[in-house]
Known about the structure:
The chain has two domains: about 190 residues, no CATH class; about 160 residues, Heat Shock Protein 90 (2-Layer Sandwich), CATH 3.30.565.10. The chain has a five-stranded mixed sheet, with helices on one face. The protein is α+β, with helices and mostly antiparallel strands. The chain is rod-shaped. It has nine helices and seven strands; from the N terminus they run H-H-H-H-H-H-E-H-E-E-H-E-E-H-E-E. Keywords: Membrane, Transmembrane, Transmembrane helix. This is Signal transduction histidine kinase internal region domain-containing protein. InterPro entries: Bact_2-comp_sensor_kinase, Sig_transdc_His_kin_internal.
Amino acid sequence: MSFVIFNQSLFMKILERYSILLHIIGWIVFITVPLLSLPVSNVFSRPNFTVFVLPQIIVTLFLIIIFYLNLNFFTPNLLIKQNTTSFFLYLFAGFIILSLINMAIFEFYLKDALFKIGVVNSPQPPPPSPDDFRPSPNFGKNIPPPFGRNIPPPTFFSFRFFAIGISYILVIFASSILALINERIRSYDEKQQIILEKTAVELAVLKLQVSPHFLFNTLNNIRWLARQKSEKTEDAVVKLSQLLRYMLYQTSTDKVSLAQEIEHLNNYISLQKMRLTEKDLIEFICYGNTKSIYIEPLLFIPFVENAFKYGLHNQEKSLIKIGIAVSEGILHFYAENKVFGANISVENSDSGIGIQNVERRLALHYPEKHELLIQNIDSIFKVDLKIKLS
């Protein structure tokens, strides 16, 4: 399905980009195809040019006008808006005008031109003159007319009327199809723009959700240090200012370097360690080329927050494992901790806010390019996230 949509959008973009060139080629083909029936050497000879080329140019000019009227007015404003009665009335009026032009060309120009070159007989032969009784130099010779046979005026007019009618139908059909394609392109662009604007607004809201949630947890930690009258309180405030500076300024762009994100996690982990005891062990491991990788900001911090929130205990030993690895175009993040007290889940109204936020952002930024596995088995909470890098 996605392949079909991609090909369709690509076809629309090609039509839009090369529309002027395609129009020029189309009209050249439209004008020259009827002339292919004439010998190449005689196309611009006076009889053929007078009888065929010149009238064809006149009719084609009118068909070009009808084409662009239908392309820019009739089909977009009438047919697409389902005003079919007015649409067909305009087209019928155009056909009547074209028929009148064809009749005028035939009566006031073609009939006399055909007679002069000997293709048709004059409907009212001129009175005899003395020269008519003299023997002609070509007497007795069978000299065919320029087109090989006499064509009576009604038959020639009927043929022209039929050919012009077919041309008119083809012009209307082609311009209507092109107008429908243009409308499809416009509608597609509008839908894409709406999707992009909706996604941008949604991402902005999600980023705003990250900051208060993160700030609330961090202030709780500093409050705990202040209650303990710890000397680390001042350092904690400094760390918090660094974290807020990163969130306010570094994440204003769409992408941040993975190295900056790792430094941000390091600052947060250092802030959390200020209230830990010797029985608490934190492992944070990074390996691979992290300098040239750019990702969406603040993707990992909700998982790290939950690890510290539910993975520490006042009396029992605690172990939190956090890791980031880059290998073969895959970014791998994992977090593991033991859950003390009530088990948590993604649907939990407190802890699930940040996780649901990340899930939504991953779906928007990395559609079909990420795998997120969250497990809570035997009070061991595990997060395994893999992102396919561009």
